[in-house]
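Our preliminary data section would be incomplete without showing what the modeling component actually yields. Below, a chain of 159 amino acids is followed by its predicted structure, encoded as C-alpha cells that our downstream tools consume directly.
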Amino acid sequence: MYLNNSTNNQVSNNNFSCFGLIAKLDNGGGGIGGICLEDSNNNRLINNTILKYWEGINLTNSSNNELNNNSILDNYFSLSLINSNNNKVLNNIIVKGGYSFSVIIYHSQNNTLQGNTGGLNTEIKVTYGFNSTNNTLEGEIDNADEPITPKIGSEDFWV
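Predicted structure:
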C-alpha cells in the first residue's frame, strides 16, 4: 500500500503479505514495501499485519503519523523513518527477517517508539542517521530481561 501526499487517513485491520515474492511499488525511491507513506501526514496505521516484504513500513518525509498495534513480521527491513518527524510508533510487534537493523531512523526528530516488542529470538537494533535527535525509544525482546539498545545514537535515549 502506498500513500503519497495523503493526510488524515486510517489504515486498519489489513493483512499485507508478499510471501517472499517481489512486489514493487513505485514510490519515487523504487522501494518494495508493505506500507509506504511518502509526504503524508496525520495518518493512522492500526492493527495491520505486514509479512515478508523488502520494507515492512516505510515513512519518508512524513510527520505526525501513528503506527499502533501492528505486526511487522519477517521483512528484510522492518521499519524505516526517513526525514520523518513527530511520529508515534506504539505497541507494535517487530520480528526481523534478513537485515540486522530492524528499525532505521534517519534525519528524523521527535519520534516516539514505545511499548514495541520483538518476537522470540529476535535481535532488534536501532540505527540512527545523522541529524536524528530527540527521539524517545523504549521496548524489549520477548523472553529477555534486557531492554532493546541502540547500536548508534546521537541525542536519542531509551526510557
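The two ends are 32 Å apart (CA to CA). The CA atoms of residues 63 and 85 lie 5 Å apart. Preliminary results of this kind motivate Aim 1 of the renewal.
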